[in-house]
Amino acid sequence: MTTTPRQNRTSQPWLHQQGSEIQAFGSVRQFTLGLSYDARMYSCERLNQILADTQILYALYKKHHWLMRGPTFYQLHLLLDKHAGEQVVLVDTIAERVQTLGGVGVGDPRHVAEITVVPRPPNGVEEVPAMLSRLLEAHELILIDAHDAAGRVAELGDDGTNDLIVSQVIRTGELQCWFLAEHLVDTPLVHS
């Protein structure tokens, strides 16, 4: 190993670095995890779909958090921000599982937009019930996929991915759906 003479060292960062892609998206490296290549490849594919959709759900939560209106503004503003925080934790957890399996987690927002199944919302502000319904519909798309993925990765012996999907993605999504749905029940704020 050669070293740079002390007098030639600098604290200037090496800017504008270019590098070669060292692992393609959609591939998995071989790790000693006790799982077959096919199981790890399948799990990464399913997790990347859930990851893309979860990133979009997180963005929807933030958008709707900012755009809340009406008499329950404060409560919904706080609730949606709390849910967004829980979704961003899921994003990181899912991406780390993909990496653990030897895959490449989808991370570029442009790539996420290409593969998500969550419909794009209008650019402007919708009425509050429409925003809440949009969040519920996004959750349902993710939950349908997550239930299917959990069963299929379990059949392949990937208990770690199954556990993540069931104990974190599904349980978090179901709880958040409950909180959202209760805001869409047609009951008066006060009795006359």
Account of the 3D structure:
By secondary structure, the chain is mainly α. It has a single domain, classed as Up-down Bundle (Ferritin). It contains five helices and no strands. It has helices at 37-67, 73-100, 109-115, 128-155, 159-182. Helix 1 (37-67) packs across helix 3 and helix 1 (37-67) runs antiparallel to helix 4 (128-155). The longest helix is centred in the N-terminal third of the chain and has 31 residues, at 37-67. The chain starts with 36 loop residues before the first helix and ends in a 10-residue tail after the last helix. The model has no long low-confidence stretch (mean pLDDT 94).
Short description:
The chain is an all-alpha fold and 192 residues long.
Highlighted features:
Ferritin; 0% strand; mainly alpha; 5 helices; 192 residues
- Total number of helices: 5
Rg value = 21 Å
Principal-axis shape equals globular
Label the structural class. Answer: mainly alpha
Helicity range:
55-70%
Number of strands: 0
Fourth-tier CATH superfamily name: Ferritin, core subunit, four-helix bundle
Series of H and E elements: HHHHH
User: What would the average pLDDT be, to the nearest integer?
Assistant: 94
What percentage of amino acids are in beta strands?
under 5%
Q: How many domains, in number, for the residues?
A: 1
Please name the CATH topology: Ferritin
- Determine and state the CATH class: Mainly Alpha
**Which second-level CATH architecture applies?**
Up-down Bundle
How is the secondary structure organized here?
Blueprint: H1 37-67, H2 73-100, H3 109-115, H4 128-155, H5 159-182
Helix pairs in contact: 1-2, 1-3, 1-4, 2-5, 4-5
